[in-house]
Design brief:
Blueprint lengths: L10 E5 L3 H12 L3 E5 L3 H13 L4 H6 L5 H10 E4 L2 H5 L3 E4 L5 H14 L5 E4 L6 H5 L8 E5 L9 E6 L5 H13 L3 E6 L8 H18 L5 H12 L5 H10 L6
Parallel strand pairs: 1-2, 1-4, 2-3, 4-5, 5-6, 7-8
Antiparallel strand pairs: 6-7
Helix pairs in contact: 1-2
Length: about 260
């Protein structure tokens, strides 16, 4: 690819170095984007480094499975910077917030990011369903607040639910969609709904989980049987209960 045809550089900040945050940071760095992964906890940063380097979906396993070359893995590690200063992770083009799913914590984080990040920075949230309008209200840049909902494990899943709040600009949506495509994802734009929790994927997933729970309560089948039936019938990679375990505890421990 000639220099003229190279994609414009994008700098990414990831706020939160947990299972999702570290996986997202690994994905954006592998896609060629300079990435800063921030967390307040030193132990979280240490665990994130280990997951990225040697975890089940880490770079070493990617090389072993011939998903990328050793040179590509080394280059991704060189682009990925772990930091404990919010200012470093916020001085980027797109910030992806990955703090725990608590509304008070997310609102506080968006207030801090709004004060810290440059005026052009798009503030994206990996929330599973909190209102983007509500998060945007904590800032003075509602046009630059957007949802970018990822699926676990971020390195593998092509899912990219891009959520437009009522004030989100087309420019912000386009920037996040371009970044998602750079990561090999399939961005689909949906609308925020401040009256209900969840966007499209998790609202439908939640309905499925509720019904699976009823089946267990009624004594029709246990969780293991339900998992196997859904895999065999619908070709899901895992069943509903295994999906919850993997999404919350990480796929290294999903069993």
């Amino acid at each position: 690819m000639s220099e003229a045809n190279q994609p414009a550089p994008i700098r990414i900040g990831v706020i939160g170095a947990g299972v999702m945050g570290s996986g997202i940071a690994q994905t954006t760095a592998t896609a060629g984007m300079e990435t800063w992964c921030y967390d307040v906890a030193p132990e979280a940063l240490a665990s994130a480094r280990e997951r990225v380097a040697t975890g089940r979906y880490g770079l070493r396993r990617g090389v072993e499975r011939k998903k990328l070359s050793q040179d590509e893995a080394d280059a991704a590690l060189a682009r990925l910077h772990f930091c404990d200063q919010l200012e470093e992770a916020a001085a980027v083009d797109i910030v992806i917030e990955c703090v725990p799913e608590r509304l008070d914590l997310k609102v506080k984080t968006f207030r801090q990011l709004d004060r810290t990040a440059p005026s052009h920075t798009v503030l994206a949230s990996n929330t599973s369903g909190f209102s983007i309008a509500g998060l945007a209200a904590a800032t003075d840049r509602p046009d630059r607040v957007v949802g970018w909902h990822w699926a676990s494990p971020p390195v593998v899943m092509r899912f990219a639910e891009i959520v437009a709040g009522p004030d989100t600009s087309e420019t912000s949506l386009a920037a996040v969609c371009r970044a998602a495509e750079r990561c090999g994802k399939n961005p689909v734009v949906v609308k925020d709904n401040a009256m209900v929790w969840g966007f499209v994927a998790n609202r439908i997933y939640g309905a499925m989980l509720r019904e699976a729970g009823r089946v267990v309560e009624e004594g029709v089948a246990d969780a293991g049987a339900i998992n196997q039936l859904m895999v065999d019938c619908f070709n899901w990679p895992v069943g509903p209960f295994a999906m919850v375990k993997g999404a919350t505890k990480g796929w290294d421990n999903s069993g």
